[in-house]
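During the reporting period the student researcher (J.K.) took over the structure-prediction task from the postdoctoral fellow and processed the backlog of single-chain submissions. One of the processed entries is reproduced below for the supervisory committee.
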Amino acid sequence: MCQHHLRLRNRKVPRNGYVVPVIRAIGVIFALVGATLLAHAQASPDLRPGATVVVKHDSSGSQLVNIAMLDAKYPPALLQQQISKLGTEVGILPRGVSVFSQQIGGMPDQKLVKAQFAINRLVNRATGEINLQALTRMFAGTPAPYSISVIKVIMDGEIPTSKTLRSYSNDGVSVDGMFTDRPPALEYLIYLKARDPAKILIPLTHTEPPPVQAEKPAQGMPMANVLIPLVVLASVAAGALVYFLMLGRGGNGSPKNPNSRF
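J.K. obtained the following structure tokens:
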């Protein structure tokens, strides 16, 4: 046996001498993983609908609109302005506008800021048109801290046809639609990519969407490239911990099997 191997074989390893440093290293690694996940979660946008709009077509030809805002502190005056903005979009004034706060629980902050009114030109059953663009533009450009990124629109009582808009996406907005039949309704989730109302363009009926260009990769290191090395490093460190614990079980602190490759 060569002299180098004799030195390795006769080397004394202190009982559990490497365990504490390895445990500390594992703790640091998992702390980095947790901090990375937390930062990613905090940077992610809130995808809850900031506004829910229910539109019901009346027998008179008008549409009855109910709006509920997610933020209990949403200014009623701002919502009033946005309803007027909707009237400008469709070219007709809303009627019977009522904006109010509705308590929904025992705590003061458990309430909904709501609005009710009647208007025309949101739905045309003869042509299959639904004016989601006007409903979306009324919330586009809302100043912070009341900015809205997601809108939910429910067309109560509407049944889809071949002309009904299903989904749509461009640089300014993304629309995802679905149909529920009990009771019948069309539900749309609308994601605002742009704050400028002029960039919110949604067709009235179903159309083939234009080709979407691939998005540029986000600046900085991708999430997976950060987490995968950390997880692998944590796994290696955990394996090293098991190995050092096995070293510590020997009576003199040396490995039980001196012929081990490790």
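The committee noted the following: The mean pLDDT is 78.
J.K. will present the remaining backlog at the next meeting.
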